[in-house]
Amino acid sequence: MAEQTSLRSSRGSGASPKPQAAGPSTSASKSSFGKKTIALVYDFDGTLSPRPMQEYTFLPKIGEDPKTFWRECNRIAREQEADPLITYMHLMYQKAKARNVRIDRADLVALGRDVELFPGVEAWFGEIAEYIRIRAESQGVALRHYLISSGLVEIIEGTRIRPHFHNVFASEYWFEAYDLPYPKRVITDTGKTQYLFRINKGIESLGQSINEHMPEDARPIPFSNMIYFGDGDTDVPSMAVMRKNGGHAIAVHTPGKSRTKCVDLFKAGRCDFFAPADYRRGSELFRRTTLLIDRILANIRLEEEAWRLRRGIERKGAD
Ligand SMILES: [Mg+2]
Question: Which end of the chain is less congested by CB atoms within 10 angstroms, N or C?
Fold first, then answer.
């Protein structure tokens, strides 16, 4: 069990949690109100970490200047009309090979250890769990953290914060490709939204189809129990899905750097709030996140009360 149990212990188990294949919990037939899980969903690059994760170790290891690398990626993607993410995943290994640097899966995981995080990120998971534990006023409220990133599963696996996530959805390689590692999964900006629905429907096993219709009532984590954290244009589809479905979104920017992008997102109605990416207790981000959590907790209590009423009526009849 991962972070959903953290309302009692502020730390994750340390082991990588298994993807949940939990089926939907239905409403009135159950003996307790089931929609009490809060999900905080994060983008990684620029949201939890200041720079794209490849810049900390992979690119230096193959002797690439990040600016030159991304410029080349963008040029090739444009000229070839290629997907920019497939282009970067391919180019990283093409260059490693050209320089005779071998980087296998274990090496990528090891590279994750040096990825930089914004201030307070490591303590954040425990602090938020503590905040909810004190204020829930309802038994059984659970908290989960999820990561949805265009970056690499392997690098994220090596970061210090991996154990805090209930599940991580990110791009990934097939390493047994005959020549260069081959993209196994590529998570594009719009593709990210699929994973929001997986969390919403409780269909987190990637072998299962997400497209089958599931009535709102049967979805274990309503969007109204979710907050999405992102930092820019690549998060617009996810923020739009969240907001259109009654969920919440917060935009962040590097502390001390321009907040123009966040202001644009805020003015366009993409996010409820924005704040510098300072995750320490007492920061603007902490305060605005907990405001939304207060609202989610109040909503859970309201929904639970209405559920009890409906259940009573079903059992005893309307008279
Ligand atoms: Mg980002």
Answer: C
Which range of residues forms the domain containing residue 176?
Answer: 3-52+117-316
236 CA distance to ligand 1 middle (Å): 10
Domain count, the chain: 1
Nearest to 58 by CA among 16, 88, 83: 88
Residue 93: inside a domain, yes or no? no
Residues 274-317 have pLDDT tens digits of: 999 999 999 999 999 999 999 999 999 999 999 999 999 988 87
**277 Cα to the center of ligand 1, angstroms:** 12
Q: Which residues contact 44 (CB under 8 A, 6 or more apart)?
A: 53, 147, 149, 151, 156, 170
pTM for this model (two decimals):
0.89
- Report which of residues 28 and 179 the model is more confident about: 179
- Whether 196 has a pLDDT exceeding 90, the answer reads yes
Domain membership of residue 237 (yes or no) is: yes
Q: Please say whether the beta carbons of 169 and 148 come within 8 A.
A: yes
Torsion of CA 16, 13, 209, 299, to 10 degrees: -150
Kindly list the protein residues that place their beta carbon closer than 5 angstroms to ligand 1, a single-atom ion.
Answer: 43, 45-46, 231
pLDDT in tens, 112-134: 999 999 999 999 999 999 999 99
Q: What's the gap in Å between 230 CA and the centre of ligand 1?
A: 6
Question: Can you list the positions of beta strands (E) in 75-159?
Answer: 142-152
Q: What is the pLDDT of residue 31?
A: 78
Residue 110 falls inside a structural domain: no
Q: Is residue 185 part of a domain?
A: yes
Distance 115 CA to ligand 1 centre (A): 14
- CATH code for the domain in which residue 219 is found: 3.40.50.1000
| Rounded distance from Cα 268 to ligand 1 centre (Å) | 18
